[in-house]
């Protein structure tokens, strides 16, 4: 992973830097993925967000729903091409809003014979191309985009995929993400986050909300549970250790459901863990993080380990 930061308007207090990110993974089986992301200011009052990615990488599918079993795991190869861009205009201090376009092409290969995906009754299992129009709003009051000590980030995005504009399926997706940061005393931070996603229409399984992964609900395999609706919360305590080393402990609750009323606190899955940080860039507070995470689901492998640049949120 490569990150490049540049401050386009150093004379403006708390103006967020332009950030370019390049991420790549590759396996000995000639499988890999690459992603390019750009967040660039276009003048003092507007920003352009760009994302381009290609993936030919293994995936696991367990079925759809909050109670799928680990023994139903199916391995396959997911081909994905993604092109996305947004133009956001500042409408108030640190608040940006604007339209975007998202194009994604999916193809699932090497599916299990006689498996759920091979049965062709899961939308997206035979490949699908979707095109969506977005409206996105961002309210960013963090003092740092990489390792905030205080402030908050609110992101809201609605994407409408329609056959009228060339999509092969009609559906929508709404994403809500709010995170908050409190420095309770010097370099000791309490951070928390809430994420909510809801979808409607004929949603390909690849674009259903996914529970698990290196950012939210660490301790579950990414996409271990998928369905139409998703709610998750997590909190994290971050603290210094010595020199460039820092530590953290975290816990999360989350659930997916086919209907909104299916999301209830007594059905939440639990994930928790601890981690170690090494500061790679002291000026920007960019960290290499190693997280050890567990989950409490009885049917699930309950240990995951992540090594990634940047915080989970």
How does this structure look, described?
This protein is mainly beta and 313 residues long. The model has no long low-confidence stretch (mean pLDDT 94). The chain has one domain (2-309): Porin (Beta Barrel), CATH 2.40.160.50. Strands 1-2-3-4-5-6-7-8-9-10-13-14-15-16-17 form a 15-stranded antiparallel sheet, with no helix packed on it. Strands 11-12 form a two-stranded antiparallel sheet. The two termini are 17 Å apart. It is globular, with a radius of gyration of 20 Å. It has strands spanning 2-6, 18-26, 32-41, 46-61, 74-92, 95-109, 128-140, 151-161, 171-185, 188-201, 210-211, 225-226, 229-242, 245-257, 269-281, 286-295, 303-309. It contains no helices and 17 strands.
Identify the notable features of this structure and list them briefly.
15-stranded antiparallel beta sheet; Porin; 313 residues; 60% strand; globular; mainly beta
Task: Detail the topology: elements first, then pairings.
Blueprint: E1 2-6, E2 18-26, E3 32-41, E4 46-61, E5 74-92, E6 95-109, E7 128-140, E8 151-161, E9 171-185, E10 188-201, E11 210-211, E12 225-226, E13 229-242, E14 245-257, E15 269-281, E16 286-295, E17 303-309
Antiparallel strand pairs: 1-2, 2-3, 3-4, 4-5, 5-6, 6-7, 7-8, 8-9, 9-10, 10-13, 11-12, 13-14, 14-15, 15-16, 16-17
């Amino acid at each position: 992973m490569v990150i490049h930061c540049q401050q386009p308007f150093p004379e403006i207090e708390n103006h967020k830097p332009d950030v370019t990110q390049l991420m790549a993974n590759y396996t000995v089986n000639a499988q890999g993925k690459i992603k390019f992301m750009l967040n660039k200011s276009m003048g003092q009052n507007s920003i352009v967000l760009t994302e381009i990615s290609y993936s030919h990488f293994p995936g696991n599918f367990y079925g759809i729903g909050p109670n799928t079993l680990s023994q139903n795991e199916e391995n396959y190869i997911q081909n994905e091409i993604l092109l996305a861009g947004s133009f956001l205009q500042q409408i108030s201090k640190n608040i940006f809003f604007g339209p975007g376009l998202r194009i994604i092409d999916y193809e699932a290969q090497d599916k299990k014979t006689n498996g759920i995906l091979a049965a062709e009754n899961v939308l997206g299992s035979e490949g699908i191309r979707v095109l969506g129009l977005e409206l996105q709003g961002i309210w960013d009051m963090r003092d740092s985009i990489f390792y905030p000590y205080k402030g908050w980030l609110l992101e809201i995005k609605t994407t409408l995929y329609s056959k009228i504009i060339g999509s092969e399926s009609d559906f929508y997706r709404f994403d809500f993400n709010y995170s908050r940061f409190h420095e309770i005393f010097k370099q000791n931070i309490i951070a928390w986050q809430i994420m909510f996603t809801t979808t409607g229409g004929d949603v390909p399984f690849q674009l259903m909300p996914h529970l698990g992964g290196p950012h939210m609900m660490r301790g579950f395999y990414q996409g271990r549970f998928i369905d139409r609706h998703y709610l998750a919360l997590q909190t994290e305590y971050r603290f210094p250790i010595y020199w460039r080393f820092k530590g953290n402990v975290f816990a999360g609750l989350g659930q997916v459901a086919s209907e909104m009323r299916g999301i209830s606190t007594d059905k939440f899955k639990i994930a928790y863990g601890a981690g170690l940080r090494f500061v790679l860039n002291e000026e920007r507070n960019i960290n290499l993080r190693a997280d050890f995470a567990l989950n409490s689901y009885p049917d699930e492998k309950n240990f995951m380990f992540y090594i990634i640049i940047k915080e989970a949120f």
